[in-house]
Amino acid sequence: MRKLLVCLVALLLHGAVVTAAELRGTGDLGIVIERAAGSVQIVETTHRVALGRVEGLGDLSHASAVFSRDGRYAYVFGRDGGLTKVDLLERRIANRVVQAGNSIGGAISDDGSLVAVANYEPGGVKVFDAETLTPVADIPSVTLADGKRAKVVGLEDSGHRRFAFSLYEAGQTWLADLADPAHPKVERFENVGKLPYDALVTPDGRFYIAGLFGEDGLALIDLWHPEKGATHILEGYDKGEEPLPVYKMPHLEGWAEAGDLLFLPAIGRHELLVVERRDWQEVGRIPVHGQPVFAEARPDGRQVWVNFAHPDNDVVQVIDVPTLRVVDTLRPGKAVLHLEFTPRGEQVWISARDSDEVVVYDTETRTVMTRINAAKPSGIFFTARANRIGL
Amino acid sequence: MRKLLVCLVALLLHGAVVTAAELRGTGDLGIVIERAAGSVQIVETTHRVALGRVEGLGDLSHASAVFSRDGRYAYVFGRDGGLTKVDLLERRIANRVVQAGNSIGGAISDDGSLVAVANYEPGGVKVFDAETLTPVADIPSVTLADGKRAKVVGLEDSGHRRFAFSLYEAGQTWLADLADPAHPKVERFENVGKLPYDALVTPDGRFYIAGLFGEDGLALIDLWHPEKGATHILEGYDKGEEPLPVYKMPHLEGWAEAGDLLFLPAIGRHELLVVERRDWQEVGRIPVHGQPVFAEARPDGRQVWVNFAHPDNDVVQVIDVPTLRVVDTLRPGKAVLHLEFTPRGEQVWISARDSDEVVVYDTETRTVMTRINAAKPSGIFFTARANRIGL
């Protein structure tokens, strides 16, 4: 009898260890950044629930994340230079390094082997082995006369173990080829424009576009033809108009591509610029509720959802792409910071920081499917990002 | 002592059960159809290995598969009407129904809740609960004067729990809305053209295009504007030319969309047709090695890889999209039946049936990364398909 009890206890203990990491697919998982608490919630989009919380990720203001190609691990980039590898299945920190003093996001290579981080302080890009977080490359952004390093912004995967990024004070964009991480090949594009502050790569990985804070217009590089160098597009889109004060810089990675059109937040204006991708000409402007922060296309490209900077950050607007008109104005909650679509677009998840909620909408009916409690939620990231180019 | 042994045995047994289903992400998994053996191999693209085999799936000639939105389960559609739900983690059959006498593929709804199967015999579409494989809807394709059912082909997900499919003998395309599976709403497009034999939905879910075996040209339906009805495109692309005998019908789901261009296998010709998506006009033809079967775009749209019908089925050609020229001719093995890109396009997996191998290429260098033994492999399907619209 006692023997059986011992076995039972042993089995229960063993079982407990096992069930702590549930056997399940990872394709419908994601994380919600809880910026104030330094934690992430692990969420699941099939039943639209939170599965658990992982704590101890440091300063997560302006945090972002990428995913391992198997969807099991999230790499979370913290503002304090922390790079944390989170195991979504065991719901724990698998590994963590503090790799710089001040960071602004990162990317993962197309083969999933390299994680790159963009740093403000000290300025540069550090590259890590995705498996172990061992440093494999360091690319200091030394360009200024006094040997100082420029802040690195707009770091994006550009395919084939390459990363593209921009140097804020230096007005340069660099393309780093890490086919051999021990010897990174760096191609420099100088004078791309004044103060590039963020960038995007189009979903096909072809075009790198940097927003310029120091001048009107944007810098464009065709990554299929880098020999052509950087060109300017949308020059002077603000000419002769008095810009409004900028409370928050738009996020360019959020720029929406829908069919042949890109939808760009106009800095300091209550408008989205509509750009024809084939010739990069502005083909229209859409007046919106406030200063856009994220303009995200539903994966089918038929709708673009937009959130706004303070003081209009309780509103999300929905734009119908065929007619280029605002068709809905929603109020999900207080201080909407981010939105993320499920990969086929039937749901959108919206973080309302000051309501301590993530609000999930059906994108067809635009009705609320559920609300999930979260502590001051900001960024929302789903594992399907592992399959996408240019993030 | 004996007590300890008993415990040890108990634990080992328990441990064995657990390790049979390895805790892992599912984002880099896929299946390879082994048509002759009625089995599938479960493969993993990060280390490029086969993980195990699942048997007992029946007649898998012309089999295809879709995936649950969490990436854990594959739904395999067999030619014998079998619908098999395969658990990729436990590597076993989770469920199986023989739902018709003769089938030709299927689709899964955008919310992952419904699996639909296209049937030849008896003609129609059956819809199942993705969780349990319980039948939830039956849409017989009765259209012929004598009450006979037409064969159903080209069944595709068209978003929002809707499926589009075509009726071969009847020359019709139907759009079935299963928002309420108990009461499917079916919209019929009559006289779309003679003998639609397969179809595709563009990656954004907007356009349904059916190939016509009974006449030159293709039928196009804008799913954003179904009220406009079906129109014809590329009419008479073969006019005045003597078509070659057709050994194998091209697979339209394989039609490649790269940027604004579609690449279509020309039936009975050694050419790919290049079509401008904006106005559906033919803008070029690319002479190729044989009669194309699959023309697949690398996810970045910069390359299109093509395989061919007998007797040219030992060759795969690579087309450079910017120049519309064949830039490489590869010989992966004997009887190449299918090819599948990893979601970010750094690898392509190619099945060489008569070599009993799956050959994995690096798409940049076009060198062989590895070869994996498989018994008469045909279709290759990766879990990233769960995230894609229009399959």
Automatic annotation (TrEMBL), chains A, B:
Signal sequence region: 1-20
InterPro entries attached to this UniProt entry: Cyt_cd1_C_sf, Haem_d1_sf, Host-pathogen_enzymatic-act
Domain of life (superkingdom): Bacteria
CDD domains linked to this entry: 8prop_hemeD1_NirF
Keywords of this entry: Signal
Entry keyword RNA-binding: no
Full protein name: Cytochrome D1 domain-containing protein
Provenance organism: Benzoatithermus flavus
